[in-house]
Amino acid sequence: METTTSLGSLLKVLPPVDFCCVYGSSLHPNNNDKSSMEDYILGVSDPQQWHSENLKLNRGHYASWMASVGGAKLITKAADRIGVGVHFNPFVSWNNKMYKYGVVRMDDLVEDILSWKRFYLSGRLQKPVRIIVDNRKIANTNIINLRAASSAALLLLPSKFTERELYAKICSLSYMGDLRMFFAEDKNKVKKIVEGQFELFRNMYKPLVEEYATKQLLRLSSCGDHQMSISQDCSLSATSSVVSSLPESVRSQMGVGTVLTKAGQNSKLTIGSREEAATLMQKVLRRRVMISSARQAVAGFIAVGAVQGVKYLGEKMTKAWNSSSKII
After folding, report:
1. Contact (Cβ atoms closer than 8 angstroms) between residue 148 and residue 179
2. What is the spatial distance between Cα 127 and Cα 300, in angstroms, rounded to a whole number?
3. Could you write out the DSSP letters of every residue in 49-61?
């Protein structure tokens, strides 16, 4: 696995950031393709100010029309009003390597991690990333996100499953309803991500799996191929416990209510059945992902310009086609 001495090198030519993580194929232990694009998420306190500074340093990173017509103000407004608050600069060439980086307001990043309001960057952070800069302790905040992702996956899994199946289900959450998956993404994407980063997923989620086991919601055993076999309690009380870890905004849209106990202080979730809860949650997440992916696709196409947009879409569709051809 690459270390932070090589990952994150692009930061040398960018304005300071409060948060930076690298994600994607760069983290695959067996990735020897030096031509692959290195992907970044950058968190900043004031995106407009940051873009203003970056335009002075790296104007070539932006679509020429956007930099000339509206500058930092237009870049930020397009990300906020059309997209989901993230502006991406893809195909950035530096030091004989290609990069893509997305810039987001720190408050928006934290909100999505905790509430899944957009279920965009929160979904990205449910998968392995390498954090390079973390001035706001996002890694600690993200534990809440990981716990919620674990709970959502458990709700969608049967009573018995493997460790690999758990990570695959977690990984698939942020792709449910993603419009790109219909025509511009590798159909084997989830499988490839989990297989390529299995140990990274284990490092992220094993403490939470053990936490659920301690609460007797899960039972763990070895299945002989260096991974755990897991069985879960599917009772209504266990389901209520799992659902309680989902963000409040998701529970609210699911229509999961609370009732006061006799003490009049604590409350408990009211759930009709596990199947109903799983269906309702899936519907909520699919809608959020669909809306966010559509908005970000439009914003991204506008941000990079027609030529780069077609180039990026073409590369995605080629991967999707190659994946489909292998299946056939």
Report:
1. no
2. 22
3. HHHHHHHHHHGGG
